[in-house]
Amino acid sequence: MTLPDVISGRPDFIVLSNYLIQPSFLLSTCPLLSTTRTLVLAHTLITPGWDSYDKTAPFDPLHPNIDVHYPKLNSRYGCMHSKFALLFYSSGVRVMVTTGNYISVDFGNMTNGIYVQDFPLKSAADDGKGGGGGEVHPFEKTLVAYLKVACSQVSGSPTHAVSSPPSPTTPQNFLRGFQRGSEVSSCPPPHQQPAIVWPTLAEVASSLNGYSSGRSIPAQIESLFDSDDASPSFGQTRTLKIKPHLAPLLHRWGNPSLPRTKAAPHIKTFLRYKTDARSGEPTGELGWAMMASHNFSMAAWGAVQKKGKQLSIEHYELGVLFTERDFRAEGGEGGGGGDD
């Protein structure tokens, strides 16, 4: 699945959001953006020469149909990191949530994920606020709260939206969307340590983008490695050791025999496997799965403040959550998404 597969048809209006946006890539890949009324929610626009645009510059002087908006940030650590698209048609709306930036290297040479689903227009009977009294699905509630958009019928969505706009909030409010899905899962508390899939230096070096792929897989040295007070002399190299509590959790990326391994990971997924009640060993069945724009950072997930009474979030983030109940409802398929 590619961007042209998603941004297709005859939409009346499009909303695009991302951290990095390369106008030349979008316009050449999705020609209908040249003629369709479009709102772009951006953090940074990238020129063909990879120099950042001034934020006061237009998306493209030749395309007045495209309006660029830079969402308000609460601090210098904040950013617009949500990666999604909304396409409004006369018959309904298409929702896409992805992990890739709208730049050529992300969709050409890196591994990302895409979730896509089409929703028909809702009737008054379907609207939970209308005369029909129908229940509004949590997916719609989250999108309404996050985007103030509620013009589609999403009661049949096989997922839950998980969003985090930047603001001080209580942990209960932020995690409500995630807890709503996890509560319907029958997974007991985990008996095993989590596994973190993270590419090695050699895997990054041999990827399609080479060492430059590492810029899309950020990690702070002090978070991964033990500090070394002994500074190396001039001309000497420094050997870093992974923190002892992290080393057992790290797992290599991909399989050398699979061609996809060369596309370095930019995808962010979180999986919870069910465990056997007696042995505590994983059964191989998923309890829940989430694909989101969140990196492993406090700016994305939030930092607990005021003695646990407040969670401060700096980034705009968005993801989709599949629960065990969703897997059963879809016969194990999980919905209309796909990998890219």
From TrEMBL:
<keyword id="KW-0269">Exonuclease</keyword>
<keyword id="KW-0378">Hydrolase</keyword>
<dbReference type="GO" id="GO:0003690">
    <property type="term" value="F:double-stranded DNA binding"/>
</dbReference>
<keyword id="KW-0234">DNA repair</keyword>
<feature type="active site" description="Nucleophile">
    <location>
        <position position="81"/>
    </location>
</feature>
<dbReference type="GO" id="GO:0005634">
    <property type="term" value="C:nucleus"/>
</dbReference>
<comment type="similarity">
    <text>Belongs to the tyrosyl-DNA phosphodiesterase family.</text>
</comment>
<dbReference type="Pfam" id="PF06087">
    <property type="entry name" value="Tyr-DNA_phospho"/>
</dbReference>
<dbReference type="InterPro" id="IPR010347">
    <property type="entry name" value="Tdp1"/>
</dbReference>
<feature type="binding site">
    <location>
        <position position="268"/>
    </location>
    <ligand>
        <name>substrate</name>
    </ligand>
</feature>
<dbReference type="GO" id="GO:0004527">
    <property type="term" value="F:exonuclease activity"/>
</dbReference>
<feature type="active site" description="Proton donor/acceptor">
    <location>
        <position position="266"/>
    </location>
</feature>
<keyword id="KW-0540">Nuclease</keyword>
<feature type="site" description="Interaction with DNA">
    <location>
        <position position="297"/>
    </location>
</feature>
<keyword id="KW-0227">DNA damage</keyword>
<dbReference type="GO" id="GO:0006281">
    <property type="term" value="P:DNA repair"/>
</dbReference>
<dbReference type="GO" id="GO:0017005">
    <property type="term" value="F:3'-tyrosyl-DNA phosphodiesterase activity"/>
</dbReference>
<keyword id="KW-0539">Nucleus</keyword>
<dbReference type="GO" id="GO:0003697">
    <property type="term" value="F:single-stranded DNA binding"/>
</dbReference>
<protein>
    <recommendedName>
        <fullName>Tyrosyl-DNA phosphodiesterase 1</fullName>
    </recommendedName>
</protein>
<feature type="binding site">
    <location>
        <position position="83"/>
    </location>
    <ligand>
        <name>substrate</name>
    </ligand>
</feature>
